[in-house]
């Protein structure tokens, strides 16, 4: 296989310079890459059916003989048209082809073909317009469809693949050794490649698919494990292992049992032999920030060797970073810990000062957005890296921050419940702590689903709460403009000002300058502003416990997990909170989805439903987890194969099997896969 990846695609018959360029655009520079360009679908040609058995309006493959040579007609604009009569011995069908001067040479009277196209005409007379056709002895039951590019048709690719397959020597080198193939009942690579492209039957195709999916998962999993074992050095930043009680005493509340447990688990990791690598999963509002703060405290105040250490906390948005800065400075300043904030809007002299202070060890905890990844930024001695809402960052971004220290401990936090197998896949063999308990006194958030006609009443309800000194969020999908049926922040502001003239309100959206956003958020946290009219920029992490009302306009526009995050902005204090979803109710499916959301508070259940509804694309898209692009395997639908491949990878790693020369091919595949995601190997 390896040599085929070194063999230029131009060496294939029928592929010249021009086509080779198109193949390169498809990411297929070599013959090996072409063989790994799997069909995206298959057309069912079968052996061709009789004309009588076709259904009007459907795409069918018909087996029939050409009755007489195609007749040529000139139509308007000088265009050519051919008519061909075909028969299956019992019925006739008329075919029409436009502007294809090759028809007379391709279709010969008396010869039998399979014609595939949409069946038109009427009950007694069947027709097809420009059907595809193949001589009957060349028909493939399942014909591959390739991701075509401009200038390169699926058919041309198919022909090239046919040429490439001829080059596969009888004994193509399989990166998976025989024993492993036998254990997991995998077919040989040569068989898999041939049948993934040109399967003889559905069964054939499944055999080939299973083998290729397994291989891809295995290669990915092994690659990730190797990255991790490379990272897993000695623990250079060991803490004493004591629970940070002094920190707990600084808090205005008692930690929940779940928080204490998670902190304990992390402290144990950080006191251990290798660096911590842990994920904390906890539903919105479960108190992840306090856990992160406790660990930063321990790192900064309690390192076993007594040398000063620094910690970094990265958040996905400026608003969230600023809020973490406010919360954590308040928690940690009494202990003398120096906290600083770095976002993209810290510039000029201020920024230079901050960089210098950080390098000199005059800052203990740096909080910020991905601005923390800036190349010029260096720490004096970074011992702990925390990433909040980790699913918003790629693997490469997380590891880039880690590289700012000498194997710092790593903690990632997420409210998105990811099934364990997937978490393992995405993070290698990461340890997981779960916050399965909300702080005490939380009440269920009452959720209502209403139509826009009831908006007035909803506003009156909001007004009542404002009079009690409480606050609320109003969420719109657009910033401005008037796309039909969609509410904008700008239009809503007018609406609310009319309905609630007394209310102190302000707007917030992604197009505002960072300073303006911060000012709006600050005014809202301090209670000066009662109502925040916003886009979903407040979706993640924002914490203002006095806000108890969440109104979401055009609720049908959002995914369930997103709604759950938005709803999670309220219900953070002792007062009963309300979430009002407004939707016109025109789309029945959307309404059912929203009803389900209204009746469910459990984030795990909601995430599951969301995954089912939306499919894996959004949830596990490469953009979110930063993994290399997979060619055939799908992490959400091929779960059982994934589990098998994980088991296999684990066993191989434990045995140290990859040093064995028979696994050389597998190592090469690993390198090839991860070349497409270079950051992941850092
Ligand atoms: P999330 O897990 O969504 O990040 P936060 O860390 O923002 O949650 O915490 C949500 C709210 O709960 C905050 O206002 C925080 O101060 C409060 N909180 C956290 N832990 C406790 C606790 N043990 N007791 C009471 N309130 C808590
Ligand atoms: Mg949070």
- Binned, the helix content reads 25-40%
CATH-defined topology of the largest domain: Rossmann fold
**Bound small molecules, which ones?**
adenosine-5'-diphosphate, magnesium ion
- Do you know the CATH architecture of the largest domain? 3-Layer(aba) Sandwich
How many strands, what sense, and barrel or not for the largest sheet? 7 strands, parallel
Labels describing this entry:
682 residues; binds magnesium ion; seven-stranded parallel β-sheet; six-stranded parallel β-sheet; DNA polymerase, domain 1; single chain; binds adenosine-5'-diphosphate; alpha/beta; OB fold (Dihydrolipoamide Acetyltransferase, E2P)
Structure description:
39% of the residues lie in helices and 18% in strands. The protein has 682 residues and is of the alpha/beta class. The protein folds into five domains: 1-42 and 148-170, DNA polymerase, domain 1 (Orthogonal Bundle); 46-139, OB fold (Dihydrolipoamide Acetyltransferase, E2P), CATH 2.40.50.140; 173-230 and 638-682, no CATH class; 245-435, 3-Layer(aba) Sandwich (Rossmann fold); 445-600, 3-Layer(aba) Sandwich (Rossmann fold). Helix 19 (560-567) links the parallel strand 21 (547-552) and strand 22. The longest helix has 30 residues, at 202-231. The protein starts with a helix and ends in a 7-residue tail after the last helix. The structure holds adenosine-5'-diphosphate and magnesium ion (MG). Adenosine-5'-diphosphate binds at residues 253-256, 259, 282, 284-290, 415, 439, 541, 543, 545, 572.
Write the layout of secondary structure elements.
Blueprint lengths: L1 H5 L10 H9 L5 H5 L5 E4 L14 E8 L4 E5 L3 E9 L4 E7 L4 H4 L5 E10 L4 E4 L2 E4 L6 E4 L8 H14 L10 H6 L5 H9 L4 H30 L13 H6 L6 H15 L5 E6 L5 H14 L8 E5 L3 H15 L6 E4 L5 H12 L5 E4 L13 E6 L7 H8 L6 E6 L5 H8 L3 E5 L10 E5 L4 H13 L3 E5 L13 H11 L5 E4 L5 H13 L4 E4 L12 E6 L7 H8 L10 E5 L5 H11 L4 H12 L1 H5 L1 H4 L13 H17 L8 H12 L7
Parallel strand pairs: 5-7, 10-15, 10-16, 11-13, 11-14, 12-13, 14-15, 17-22, 18-20, 18-21, 19-20, 21-22
Antiparallel strand pairs: 1-9, 2-4, 2-6, 3-4, 4-5, 6-7, 6-8
The structure holds adenosine-5'-diphosphate and magnesium ion.
